[in-house]
């Protein structure tokens, strides 16, 4: 496909979207008085606001955003959703009882586990661990991986060679296996232990993406222009490189967030994630697998919620990527 | 012109980009000779055009003049002071006087900054030029000078057309009141009907602010229109330099002649009668340029001498006394006049 | 349905005719009307230059003819594309395929992205013969070498197994031309074929294209923004602006006395090589947004001659006559004031 007219077209459409009149320049090259009769200039539209404008019209974004919002509220104030605690055990509630699916949002709604605890309540309270780990790993990875990638990409030379080799080394470690090895060495594993272990191994992807986009931006004409004005390194990094490199990195981080939640669940399932008495979906799924033949719902409901959570973050990342990258439109 | 002091004096400028191999331990296996012994002067208020095909080194010259690259050897003197090896505060001070307008208005403006921030950035970097309270006003004035509505100050670059963006780029270049502006293909990315607007604007600004331009382009017609003097580059060297009439009406270097004759003229009446020199082959790689005269591999006049002896850029001896336009520097052993433009 | 159908010369019927073509693109800001009623014809041995700036719809028209328009976002909203009198838009996909590639071929601006980087140029050239002509591998390779010789690629025999990136820009464009020529098409559409090339190489490629067109008596549609290239090779010219043809004229006529203010402005705004000239005339303003094409004549906000009627009525493409009412031939202009423009 030749890109000639297609891109020109989109440029023309884009370019003339707002200021529809250029200033008249008369024959002798003098600018004519401003044409005041022209259309009222449109309001300023940054690329971020353009992306937002696109996002709020995307069903996939709206759905995933609403789900994620609910999950966040669940993680912050679980007691809003359920009247019983996750550890309230009553052995008269037998786990072989059928779930009372018509009793919406009641403790008995999705049935009970072997200890007679409400599965529903445990799912609600398990959200916090997943969300906190997912979000904090992402933040750590963004800061650390972003910094490494930016330094390597911008300064290049021996610094890049050293940092890139370190990144490659870490990338060579299988993510889950590495996390298991790290976590096994801890007696008790809290949310923060797991977060650090995942971040320790997960920053490489962000570092690579960041390095790549920084290298591209470093060579762009607007960075040249800033350099020729005499701008210092920090000004160039903070005003020119970072704002432009951020978009692809944020997208990768959003998609990775779902992966970190999965990783936590897998680790907890294997018994080397959060240690008891922490409540987490992965742990509950692990405990439920022994009863899978007689009471599959013990395993089913937390798994569904886990899948919905991961899917929502992936969808959100996807939608944001489309909005930030006009080329995919 | 000779009795004046040049504002910018480039002498024996050389830029070789090393070709390296290896990842952690790099070793040099060769060099791309992008610019190889280029000398010229620029005088106050004049426009020096530099033309050449892709890969001839003209954009590297622009980067060297802007101190975006360090020369391998040679010097760039601004009012007598060599600026090519300055750094830190001294370099920053010189930058105020030499600014640049870039080729692609779609990539030379930071898409995440408003027009006001883009044009105002020079003042933030050089706070002594405009006190803080004055900056917005200055930016509005600049927008007005380049023919854009000052109301657009809060807009983003993607809201403008190519021609308008190039005006923004010019406004940024003007902000620090420079004396010299390096223009690297400033109109080649623009539509034909918009090119003339930008050319006219640049000419008006030159008169208004007594600017000196180095105008780098591949479009020979535009270069003739805007330039007082023109230099023709081929494979990192200047082949010929002179006033616009000397180069276009009395070219003596075979490459200049071929280049001029190849330009399609917007006049169907001359298409059959015009003499065209069709060069064979392509430009050789600057990593491995021919010995002697670099043009010899495509030149119809080439003899053994051309492979052995590098022709110097000087007024050919036999033309030195001529009172026509042929008396101008030309780097050819067999320079002779040949008018290829007029029918 | 037979192949013979397309082979036959039909007297009085143009080789290729575009009739009242309309194409739209779906964009965020609404429908972008890229082509708004374009008609042109090209005959065997004739060179039609379609001249226009970016966004004028010149390339979209060509892509529609070739059937390579991205749909969506593109949409053909009306018109006909007649090859030897048969409407290609109404044909079955199979019939269309047979004409495109076999009878109509295209040369793109960017040869590097139009050629497959992982296949040798000989294979890609030979593929045309294998797919369309059922040639054997050996035969196809021989024909590929022949073609490379024809477009004057030095040492074709040795280079036939090279990959596209091993050729220079000018050589790649020659390979593109060879590919378009392979099946000896009746019509070649060249979309800015030399824009990406250097001046000296541009001259080589343009010369080659003109020569081949003459030898094979093909119809050539040359799409370009370069008034110099047009003056060098075109027989007749269609000037496009905002998705419409604003002027049709034989090449000598157009440059001597343009009949549309846009054409006139363009010709006056380009600097000359043979003398320095004074200030350039500059057409004011900029090309319109395709989502908001001005009412009436699309050029009216930039036109020095615009009157009230230009702001309300779209000027029809009217025949241009001599001052005394005599015919000129092949000339038309979509300007309410063509008389004043050409004669005044």
UniProtKB/TrEMBL annotation, chain A:
Residues 127-317 form the ABC transmembrane type-1 domain. Residues 1-13 have a biased composition (Polar residues). It is a multi-pass membrane protein. The keyword Chloroplast does not apply. Residues 1-21 are annotated as: Disordered. GO terms for cellular component: plasma membrane. It holds the Pfam family OppC_N. InterPro entries: BP-dependent_transpt_permease, MetI-like, MetI-like_sf, OppC_N. It comes from the Bacteria. It is found in: Cell membrane. The chain crosses the membrane at residues 61-81, 131-157, 169-186, 192-210, 245-272, 299-320. Keywords: Cell membrane, Membrane, Transmembrane, Transmembrane helix, Transport. The keyword Repeat does not apply. GO terms for biological process: transmembrane transport. Belongs to the binding-protein-dependent transport system permease family. This is ABC transporter permease.
TrEMBL record, chain B:
The keyword Nucleotide-binding applies. Keywords: ATP-binding, Nucleotide-binding, Transport. One of its GO terms (biological process) is transmembrane transport. CDD domains: ABC_NikE_OppD_transporters. SMART domains: AAA. InterPro entries: AAA+_ATPase, ABC_transp_ATP-bind, ABC_transporter-like_ATP-bd, ABC_transporter-like_CS, Oligopep_ABC_C, P-loop_NTPase. The keyword ATP-binding applies. Residues 8-260 form the ABC transporter domain. GO terms for molecular function: ATP binding; ATP hydrolysis activity. Signal peptide: none annotated. PANTHER family: D,D-DIPEPTIDE TRANSPORT ATP-BINDING PROTEIN DDPF-RELATED, TRANSPORT ATP-BINDING PROTEIN. Belongs to the ABC transporter superfamily. This is Dipeptide ABC transporter ATP-binding protein. It comes from Streptomyces triticirhizae.
């Amino acid at each position: 496909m030749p890109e000639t007219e297609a891109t020109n077209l989109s440029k023309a459409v884009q370019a003339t979207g707002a200021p529809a009149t250029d200033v008249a320049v008369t024959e002798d090259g003098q600018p004519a008085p401003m044409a005041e009769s022209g259309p009222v200039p449109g309001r300023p539209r940054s690329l971020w606001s353009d992306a937002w404008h696109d996002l709020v019209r995307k069903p996939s974004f709206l759905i995933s955003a609403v789900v994620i919002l609910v999950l966040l509220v669940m993680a912050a104030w679980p007691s809003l959703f359920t009247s019983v605690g996750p550890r309230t055990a009553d052995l008269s509630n037998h786990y072989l009882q059928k779930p009372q699916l018509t009793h919406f949002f009641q403790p008995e709604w999705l049935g009970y586990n072997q200890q007679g605890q409400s599965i529903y309540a445990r799912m609600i309270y398990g959200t916090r661990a997943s969300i906190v780990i997912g979000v904090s790993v992402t933040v750590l990875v963004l800061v650390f991986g972003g910094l490494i990638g930016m330094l390597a990409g911008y300064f290049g030379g021996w610094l890049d060679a050293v940092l890139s080799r370190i990144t490659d080394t870490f990338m060579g470690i299988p993510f889950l296996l590495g996390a298991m090895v790290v976590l096994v060495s801890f007696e008790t594993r809290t949310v923060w232990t797991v977060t650090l272990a995942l971040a320790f191994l997960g920053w490489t992807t962000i570092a690579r993406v960041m390095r790549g986009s920084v290298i591209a931006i470093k060579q762009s004409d607007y960075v040249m222009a800033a350099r020729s004005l005499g701008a210092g390194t920090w000004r160039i990094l903070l005003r020119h490189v970072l704002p432009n490199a951020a978009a692809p990195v944020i997208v990768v981080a959003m998609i990775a967030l779902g992966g970190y939640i999965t990783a936590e669940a897998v680790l907890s399932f294997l018994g080397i994630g959060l240690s008891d008495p922490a409540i987490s979906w992965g742990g509950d799924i692990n405990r439920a697998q022994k009863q899978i033949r007689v009471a599959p719902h013990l395993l089913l409901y937390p798994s569904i919620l886990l899948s919905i959570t991961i899917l929502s973050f992936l969808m959100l990342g996807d939608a944001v990527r489309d909005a930030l990258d006009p080329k995919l439109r | 012109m000779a009795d004046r002091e040049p504002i910018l004096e480039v002498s024996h400028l050389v830029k070789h980009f090393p070709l390296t191999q290896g990842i952690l331990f790099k070793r040099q296996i060769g060099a791309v000779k992008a610019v190889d012994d280029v000398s010229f002067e620029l005088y106050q208020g004049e426009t020096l055009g530099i033309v050449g095909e892709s890969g001839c080194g003209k954009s590297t010259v622009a980067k060297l003049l802007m101190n975006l690259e360090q020369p391998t050897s040679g010097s760039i003197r601004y009012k007598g002071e060599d600026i090519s090896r300055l750094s830190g505060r001294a370099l920053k001070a010189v930058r105020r006087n030499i600014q640049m307008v870039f080729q692609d208005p779609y990539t030379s403006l930071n898409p995440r900054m408003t027009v006001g921030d883009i044009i105002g950035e020079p003042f933030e970097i050089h706070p002594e030029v405009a006190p803080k309270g004055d900056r917005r006003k200055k930016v509005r004035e600049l927008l007005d000078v380049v023919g854009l509505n000052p109301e657009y100050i809060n807009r983003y670059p993607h809201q403008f057309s190519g021609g308008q963006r190039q005006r923004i780029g010019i406004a940024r270049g003007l902000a620090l009141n420079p004396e010299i502006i390096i223009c690297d293909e400033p109109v080649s990315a623009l539509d034909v009907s918009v090119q003339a607007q930008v050319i006219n604007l640049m000419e008006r600004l030159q008169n208004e602010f007594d600017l000196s331009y180095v105008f780098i382009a591949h479009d020979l017609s535009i270069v003739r229109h805007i330039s007082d003097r023109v230099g023709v580059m081929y494979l990192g060297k200047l082949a010929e330099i002179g006033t616009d009439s000397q180069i276009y009406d009395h070219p003596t270097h075979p490459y200049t002649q071929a280049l001029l004759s190849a330009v399609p003229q917007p006049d169907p009446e001359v298409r059959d009668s015009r003499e065209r020199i069709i060069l064979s082959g392509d430009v050789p790689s600057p990593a491995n340029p021919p010995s002697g005269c670099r043009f010899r591999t495509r030149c119809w006049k080439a003899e053994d001498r051309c492979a052995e002896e590098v022709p110097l850029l000087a007024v050919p001896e036999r033309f030195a006394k001529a009172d026509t336009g042929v008396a101008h520097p030309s780097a050819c052993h067999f320079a002779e006049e040949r008018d290829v433009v007029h029918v | 349905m037979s192949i013979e159908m397309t082979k036959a010369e039909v007297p009085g019927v143009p080789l290729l005719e575009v009739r009242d073509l309309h194409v739209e693109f779906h964009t965020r800001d609404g429908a972008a009307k890229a082509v708004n009623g374009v008609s042109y014809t090209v005959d065997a041995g004739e060179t039609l230059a379609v001249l226009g700036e970016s966004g004028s719809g010149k390339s979209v028209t060509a892509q529609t003819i070739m059937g390579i328009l991205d749909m969506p976002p593109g949409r053909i909203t009306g018109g006909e594309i007649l090859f030897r009198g048969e409407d290609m838009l109404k044909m079955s996909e199979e019939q269309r395929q047979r004409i495109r590639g076999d009878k109509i071929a295209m040369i793109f601006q960017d040869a590097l992205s139009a050629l497959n980087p992982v296949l040798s140029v000989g294979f890609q050239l030979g593929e045309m013969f294998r797919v369309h002509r059922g040639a054997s591998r050996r035969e196809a390779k021989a024909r590929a070498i022949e073609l490379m010789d024809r477009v004057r690629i030095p040492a074709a025999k040795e280079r036939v197994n090279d990959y596209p990136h091993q050729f220079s820009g000018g050589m790649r464009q020659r390979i593109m031309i060879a590919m378009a020529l392979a099946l000896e098409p009746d019509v070649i559409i060249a979309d800015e074929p030399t824009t990406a090339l250097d001046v000296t190489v541009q001259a080589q490629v343009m010369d080659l294209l003109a020569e081949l067109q003459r030898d094979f008596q093909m119809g050539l549609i040359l799409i370009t923004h370069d008034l110099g290239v047009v003056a060098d090779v075109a027989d007749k010219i269609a000037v496009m602006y905002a998705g419409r043809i604003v002027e049709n004229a034989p090449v000598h006529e157009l440059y001597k006395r343009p009949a549309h203010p846009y054409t006139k402005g363009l010709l006056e705004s380009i600097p000359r090589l043979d003398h320095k000239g004074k200030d350039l005339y500059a057409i004011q303003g900029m090309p319109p947004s395709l989502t908001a094409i001005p009412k009436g004549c699309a050029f009216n906000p930039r036109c020095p001659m615009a009157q009230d009627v230009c702001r309300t009525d779209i000027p029809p493409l009217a025949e241009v006559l001599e001052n005394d009412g005599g015919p000129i031939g092949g000339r038309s202009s979509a300007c309410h004031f063509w008389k004043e423009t050409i004669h005044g």
